[in-house]
Amino acid sequence: RLNLAGAGKRLRLAKMRAVGHDSCDSSGTGGALSFEAAARRGRFAALTAGHAWAPMLAQFAREHRLDEHLVGIHTIDWTGAQIAADPGGARDALVAAAQNGIDGGAECILLGGAALAGLAPALQPRLAVPVLDNVLLAAQAVADVLTSSTAKEKS
Fold it and tell me: Closest Cα to residue 128, out of 112, 109, 111, 110?
């Protein structure tokens, strides 16, 4: 059984330690962890559904000092409902957008947004660079922090 009390604070502290920041706010912690995971692999491109996300993600990368690793933000003009209704068509659109990122120098692709969660394994065989799922990365980071905290509390 995991102790969730103070988990948010532990996650923020882990994030700050991981990137060497003296302070950070709690908004976007999962996104920051995902961007950092992609940046550790080198140059990356972010891929998401909805063109309105591009300027927000660019600002997010600048604010977290990760824009030097971000070679581009590529979007598809699909909603979450459209992706769910036609996953095959969405995968084709995502592969094309991801290839634009690879052509621009990306060493990995970061899928962003809940609508794209779980699609990395379906895209990976069609792309020459690793495909990362931001939802899974954030969930894994939370699990790692909670597991580490629980182990420390028991010792």
Answer: 109
Cβ–Cβ under 8 Å, residues 91 and 115: no
Does the global pTM surpass 0.90?
no
Q: Which region, left, alpha or beta, applies to residue 118 given φ > 0 means left and ψ of -120 to 50 means alpha?
A: left
- Report which of 109, 90, 91 is spatially closest to residue 101, judged by C-alpha positions: 109
Neighbours of 89 (CB within 10 A): 13
**Phi, psi dihedrals of residue 27, rounded to the nearest 5°:** -75, 130
Q: What is the tens place of the pLDDT at every residue in 83-141?
A: 989 989 999 999 999 999 999 999 999 998 888 989 999 999 999 999 999 888 888 87
